[in-house]
């Protein structure tokens, strides 16, 4: 069994240092613009910040993966090219890309830097992954969260690159890289602007009884009663009234987080080479807790011991966790 | 952050909203808050870059179990952190409400804001983008803000901070 790389989120320089100190093998991050899929206000790195962060991470033996994992709108590719050139100059260890044009540019302009295929590319078949490997020399694919562990094992036998899978955080069962729900209401794109549920259009309204309504743009997308756990203000996790169902219900997904701690040994045996923790939008407290927990778990498995599984429920969305499609196709 | 003893009475006070409390002597608090916010700004000048266009926003920080709220305007050229009675709150851009201990641990990077929100122990109203910017600005501070404040008050300050952290640990294990 190979020792998998623990790939950890870094939304800010401080979060990156926290992840490095907590035992991350690699951190992933993005610039403060539309080139990454967490283009949230106040988040991400300026060029000088990333330069210092790369030096700090490398001094700690941690790799830096730069997320350029959105899709350039027509005529605006230069922003992605400049980001790639800057990342190369700063010495990042790999680029995480979704768009084939961006992949092509990096493959030809910076052929010595590894290319990882983002989950945003939604490549989920051996045929599509082999295409990316052949055409752009992709070294690793981040698999969509729709495959069972046995399917991942089959995949590992059929593709010529490394496999990275999510192990904690957003459940993300939509067709990743093709989500247009937020556009429908806000006019901004998750996959082109890097903005899912832009904060400027999110409003929380608490009534006198303690119920909390979540509004996105002009629409109320959920209402949590006073003792009910809350979730993110995303359309895919809202509750809706439809003629086909009695009462409001989660028509797409429910607020819940992925936690594969108990499946770790199976994932590692299946040939997964990197384990990804989601959450660049989360705090360094989250980064410290989750990275430390998974560091211990992975190390104990590698030492032939039972994995030490920490309780991370308090950090999960809606305070609920699932093994999702990794365990079974009938996950819901 | 003015509490200097770890006594059960303090713990109880911080854990529940008092049914009645005498008017807080806020005039004593104002110069302390002013010193605190200026010290934090002086030690962490980079944080203001993450506020984007919201550095002039007025935030109401509402520790729901204390008899007053704080108004924060994180404008580096015109910093403001003042205490106000609940019936004297002016117009605001956003309001962040939670228990005093949760807010303290949140500012100090010991608690995750999203997790507090999921558990309904943190409420946000008003301009969500301004709140997100403030959260990200504070979260990018490496040093402990609570320690920086405790430093300003010497041994009593550190004793108070230790007491608050003990109360928080006790709450977490309950």
UniProtKB/TrEMBL annotation, chain A:
<dbReference type="InterPro" id="IPR001539">
    <property type="entry name" value="Peptidase_U32"/>
</dbReference>
<keyword id="KW-0831">Ubiquinone biosynthesis</keyword>
<comment type="function">
    <text>Required for O(2)-independent ubiquinone (coenzyme Q) biosynthesis. Together with UbiV, is essential for the C6-hydroxylation reaction in the oxygen-independent ubiquinone biosynthesis pathway.</text>
</comment>
<dbReference type="GO" id="GO:0006744">
    <property type="term" value="P:ubiquinone biosynthetic process"/>
</dbReference>
<dbReference type="InterPro" id="IPR043692">
    <property type="entry name" value="UbiU"/>
</dbReference>
<comment type="similarity">
    <text>Belongs to the peptidase U32 family. UbiU subfamily.</text>
</comment>
<dbReference type="Pfam" id="PF01136">
    <property type="entry name" value="Peptidase_U32"/>
</dbReference>
<comment type="subunit">
    <text>Forms a heterodimer with UbiV.</text>
</comment>
<protein>
    <recommendedName>
        <fullName>Ubiquinone biosynthesis protein UbiU</fullName>
    </recommendedName>
</protein>
<comment type="pathway">
    <text>Cofactor biosynthesis; ubiquinone biosynthesis.</text>
</comment>
<dbReference type="InterPro" id="IPR051454">
    <property type="entry name" value="RNA/ubiquinone_mod_enzymes"/>
</dbReference>
Automatic annotation (TrEMBL), chain B:
<dbReference type="InterPro" id="IPR003033">
    <property type="entry name" value="SCP2_sterol-bd_dom"/>
</dbReference>
<feature type="domain" description="SCP2">
    <location>
        <begin position="60"/>
        <end position="138"/>
    </location>
</feature>
<protein>
    <submittedName>
        <fullName>Sterol-binding protein</fullName>
    </submittedName>
</protein>
<dbReference type="InterPro" id="IPR036527">
    <property type="entry name" value="SCP2_sterol-bd_dom_sf"/>
</dbReference>
<dbReference type="Pfam" id="PF02036">
    <property type="entry name" value="SCP2"/>
</dbReference>
């Amino acid at each position: 069994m190979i020792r998998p790389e623990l790939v950890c989120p870094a939304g800010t320089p401080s979060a990156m240092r926290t992840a490095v100190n907590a035992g991350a093998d690699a951190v992933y991050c993005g610039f403060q613009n539309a080139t990454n899929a967490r283009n949230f206000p106040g988040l991400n790195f300026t060029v000088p910040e990333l330069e210092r962060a790369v030096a700090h991470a490398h001094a700690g033996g941690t790799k830096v993966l730069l997320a350029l994992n959105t899709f350039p709108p027509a005529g605006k590719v230069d922003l992605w090219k400049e980001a790639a050139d800057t990342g190369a100059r700063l010495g990042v260890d790999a680029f995480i890309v979704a768009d084939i044009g961006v992949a092509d540019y990096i493959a030809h302009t910076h052929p010595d830097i590894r290319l990882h295929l983002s989950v945003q590319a939604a490549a989920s078949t051996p045929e599509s992954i082999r295409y990316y490997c052949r055409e752009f020399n992709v070294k690793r694919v981040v698999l969509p969260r729709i495959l069972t562990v046995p399917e991942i094992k089959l995949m590992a036998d059929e593709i010529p690159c490394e496999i990275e899978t999510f192990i904690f955080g957003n459940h993300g069962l939509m067709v990743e890289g093709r989500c247009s729900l937020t556009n429908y209401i806000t006019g901004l794109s998750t996959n082109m602007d890097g903005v899912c549920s832009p904060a400027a259009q999110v409003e929380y309204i608490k009534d006198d009884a303690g119920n909390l309504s979540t509004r996105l743009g002009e629409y109320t997308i959920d209402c949590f009663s006073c003792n009910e756990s809350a979730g993110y203000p995303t359309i895919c996790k809202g509750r809706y009234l439809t003629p086909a169902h009695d009462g409001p219900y989660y028509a797409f997904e429910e607020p819940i987080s992925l936690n594969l701690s108990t499946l770790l040994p199976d994932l590692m045996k299946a040939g997964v080479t990197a384990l990804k923790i989601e959450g660049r939008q989360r705090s360094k407290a989250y980064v410290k807790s989750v990275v430390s927990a998974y560091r211990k778990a992975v190390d104990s498995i590698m030492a032939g011991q039972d994995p030490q599984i920490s309780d991370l429920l308090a950090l999960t969305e809606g305070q609920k966790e699932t093994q999702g499609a990794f365990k079974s196709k009938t996950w819901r | 952050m003015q509490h200097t003893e770890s006594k059960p009475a303090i713990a109880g006070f911080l854990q529940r909203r008092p049914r009645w409390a005498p008017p807080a002597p806020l005039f004593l608090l104002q110069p302390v808050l002013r010193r605190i916010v200026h010290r934090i700004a002086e030690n962490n000048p980079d944080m203001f870059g993450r506020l984007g266009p919201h550095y002039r926003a007025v935030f109401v920080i509402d520790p729901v179990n204390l008899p007053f709220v704080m108004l924060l305007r994180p404008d580096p050229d015109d910093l403001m952190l003042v205490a106000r009675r609940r019936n004297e709150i002016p117009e605001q851009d956003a309001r962040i409400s939670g228990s005093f201990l949760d807010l303290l641990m949140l500012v100090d990077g010991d608690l995750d804001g999203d997790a507090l929100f999921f558990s309904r122990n943190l409420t946000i109203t008003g301009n969500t983008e301004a709140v997100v910017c403030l959260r990200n600005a504070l979260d990018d501070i490496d040093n402990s803000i609570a320690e920086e404040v405790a430093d300003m008050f010497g041994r009593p300050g550190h004793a108070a901070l230790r007491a608050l952290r003990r109360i928080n640990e006790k709450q977490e294990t309950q």
